[in-house]
Specification:
CATH superfamily: Vaccinia Virus protein VP39
CATH class: Alpha Beta
Strand content: 15-25%
CATH topology: Rossmann fold
Radius of gyration: 16 Å
Number of strands: 7
Number of helices: 9
Helix content: 25-40%
Largest sheet: 7 strands, mixed
Shape: globular
Strand order of the largest sheet: 3-2-1-4-5-7-6
Length: about 210
């Protein structure tokens, strides 16, 4: 069973209750949406868009921005398509984070101004491959945003174990090395990084601005 088939199997029924149930533990998504400084005419990609919940809010808030949605699960994309059917500034496409390319998947001539992940990297087996592909799809000086689980360092051990056990049931295996890897990319000169923790390190929001001349 390949990745797309596995995602379809997992979300075949979950997609109908996904937004209602996830609001209780996917913290920081709205904070990320508020922080994204988007300008008219920009092209923005969400990798792992799921039901389209974030893109619905963004498309409503920024009608002059063109949004693109990528997800491994065709079932989730069907739900997203229904939710976004009246949003003319959103395009959906099935594909994998580590394989997406703006020319091949979306027939674009220029890379994206913004790429973002909202609790998606913790579901991708190799977050490093996904991150590097995201940077490949960004213009110089483009913006990469991430919201995802942190190390829950401000919470008791029993809570961390309970959360990790619960998340594993849904294929979530967040790697605590992710923030450190972003820091390493910053130190190597690939871009400028800002990371903020949320809720006692329950989650984090990262903003990475790619190096290079715009």
């Amino acid at each position: 069973m390949n990745t797309a088939q596995a995602m379809d199997r997992m979300y075949r029924y979950q997609r109908y209750i996904y937004d209602f149930t996830r609001k209780y533990y996917l913290f920081g998504r709205d904070t990320l949406i508020q922080r994204m400084d988007l300008q008219p005419g920009q092209q923005v990609l969400e990798v792992g868009c799921g039901t389209g919940r974030n893109l619905y809010l963004l498309a409503k808030r920024h009608p002059q921005v063109q949004f693109f949605c990528l997800d491994a699960s065709q079932a989730m994309l069907e739900t997203a398509a229904n939710k976004l059917k009246h949003k003319t500034n959103v395009r959906l496409q099935q594909g994998l984070a580590q394989e997406v390319y703006y020319r091949d998947h979306f027939q674009l001539q220029q890379a994206f101004d913004v790429v973002f992940f909202s609790y998606a990297l913790s579901m991708i087996p190799s977050f490093r491959d996904a991150l590097h592909r995201a940077l490949d799809n960004l213009k110089p000086q483009g913006h990469l945003y991430i919201v995802d689980f942190y190390d829950q360092g401000g919470w008791p051990t029993w809570f961390r174990k309970l959360l990790q056990s619960w998340l594993a049931r849904f294929g979530v295996q967040h790697d605590p090395a992710l923030p450190a890897y972003l820091q390493a990319l910053h130190e190597q000169g690939h871009g400028q990084l800002q990371i903020d923790s949320l809720g006692g390190r329950y989650a984090f929001i990262a903003h990475f601005r790619k190096s290079g001349e715009a």
